[in-house]
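Slide 14.
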Amino acid sequence: NNTISAITALPAAIPTGKILQVKSTAFPNAGQTTITATSYTFIPGYNVEITPSSTSSKIYVTGSAHFDSGGNGNEIGLAIYRYKDGSYTNPISYATDYGQTSSNSRENKTVPAWSYIDSPNTTGTLYYAFYAKTSSSDTIYLNRKTCNITVMEIGA
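Slide 15: predicted structure.
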């Protein structure tokens, strides 16, 4: 007998989130930005602003980047920073902590879409920014192709 039992009880409500707002900054074929710092450095213009409507909201941050290694075996570190209460905090997430380049003297790389869910617990204006660093004194060239950063407020 192949009888399927009926489901007797389902949860009263399955928790779901609602996208309340979306903000994005894109750099299609923008001019390059050079990175020579070996510590994380703000990339001018590569940030996006959002003001959550509730302290319980989550912020989904996503983006992608394209770069060219400036030297043989050079590596790049990419991180997401959040500006809250007057300053950028330490990285809240790493898109990559040193993307390996090949032995080519210059190599184009794309960091595929990365994402992070933040719980900022505020209704104040927030900024999310992309920071970058190089593994050596060689220059990294960012924004050679389309780069973007997008934030979405997720409500309960």
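Speaker note: The CA atoms of residues 34 and 127 lie 22 Å apart.
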